[in-house]
Amino acid sequence: MTGAMAAVGRAARSYPVVAATLAVGAVGGVLELTGAAPAARVVLSVYALVVALRQSRGMVADLRAGTYGVDLLAVLAVVSTVLVGEYWAALVVCLMLSGGEALEAYAAGRARRELSDLLARVPRVAHRVRPDGGSLDVPIDEIGPGDELWVRPGELVPVDGELLTADAAFDESSVTGESLPVEHRRGDALLSGSVNGGEAVRVRATATAAQSQYQAIVALVEEAQASRAPFVRLADRVAVPFTLVALGIAAVAWAVAGQASRFAEVLVVATPCPLIIAAPVAFMAGMSRAAKTGIIVKSGGTLEQLARVRTVAFDKTGTLTHGVPVVAAVHPARCWGADEVLALAAAVEQYSAHPLAAAIVAAARQRALPVPAARDPEEHTAHGVRATVGGRAVVVGKQGFVRSAAPDVAGAPLAPGQTGVHVGVDGGYAGVVALADEVRAETPATLAALHRSGVRSTLMLTGDAEPTARHIAGRIGIDDVRAGLLPQDKVDAVRAVTDRPVMMVGDGVNDAPVLAVADIGVAMGAKGSTAASESADVVVMLDDLSRTVRAVRIGRRTLRVAWQAIGLGVGLSMALMVVAAFGLLPAIVGAWLQEAVDLACILWALLASRPGREERAAEPLPLPAPLRVPAGGFSRG
Question: What residues act catalytically?
Answer without folding.
Answer: 315
